[in-house]
Specification:
Blueprint: H1 3-19, H2 27-35, H3 42-46, H4 53-59, E1 67-71, H5 79-82, H6 85-88, E2 91-96, H7 99-109, E3 115-119, E4 131-137, H8 146-156, E5 157-168, H9 177-185, H10 194-202, E6 206-213, E7 222-230
Helix pairs in contact: 8-10
């Protein structure tokens, strides 16, 4: 891709972000309306905004023969962080509601027989067999019934399985929490301090860390967290 094409692609993403998520229609229609115009260039821009995804996958300690589910998979960018590990997995199920993003995920998955893409709701979809690992990467903040998504992720885990989550966050006492809540909500991303609280309560055997990272075109760092919880 040439520098001009990259610049034009980033311009499309920024224009869509400035316009925000469409207000009318169903949740699926709003997602499609927002992401379809930018899906092809989505990852190039988000790679500078969505931090901690590769680290989360490393922390999940994936091993050959495991069954992995990714809820809210988007374009399937996580596949790019797996490397040769992907070939050894028994199955990798990717779940999302947005057709435009799933088209990119299917392109990434290619002809791999152990990767299956599902157009489905993260709050209700369930695998045929219990999962060893469940991954939610920058999706919890975009799911209206996020509590049910957490409950569903917990329910599909095998005993001893791990749930890994990385997402934007509102830290306690954060002076810019109001700004971040409004800024992200314009694009359908709804930050809440309750996300991390519910995750910790759902999986008491857990590890988490809160961080900040650079945000494109802004001189301030956005807060995010990494969470790993084990089902008893």
């Amino acid at each position: 891709m040439t520098a001009l094409n990259r610049a034009l692609g980033e311009g499309q993403v920024l224009l869509r972000m400035l316009r925000g998520v469409p207000r009318g229609g169903s949740h699926v229609e709003r997602l499609q309306g927002f992401y379809a115009p930018q899906a092809e260039h989505y990852d190039a821009f988000r790679s500078r905004l969505l931090h901690g995804r590769e680290e989360l996958i490393t922390l999940l300690e994936l091993e050959p023969g495991m069954r992995v589910v990714e809820l809210g998979c988007g374009t399937g960018a996580s596949l790019g962080f797996l490397g040769a590990t992907l070939d050894g997995l028994a199955r990798y199920d990717m779940v999302d509601l947005c057709p435009a993003l799933l088209a990119q995920a299917r392109r990434r998955a290619g002809e791999r027989r152990n990767v299956v893409v599902h157009e489905a709701d993260a709050t209700t979809w369930s695998p045929l067999q219990a999962a060893d690992r469940v991954l939610i990467s920058y999706a919890l903040t975009m799911i209206p019934d996020w509590r049910q998504a957490v409950a569903n992720a917990h329910a599909m885990l095998a005993p001893g399985g791990l749930l890994g989550v990385v997402d934007f966050h509102l830290p306690r006492g954060g002076r810019l929490n109001g700004f971040w809540r409004r800024w992200f909500a314009h694009d359908g991303v709804h930050l809440s301090a309750e996300h991390l609280t519910v995750l910790r309560e759902s999986l008491p055997d857990h590890w988490h860390t809160e961080r900040r990272a650079a945000t494109p075109y802004l001189p301030i760092a956005a807060p995010y967290y990494l969470f790993i919880g084990r089902r008893e």
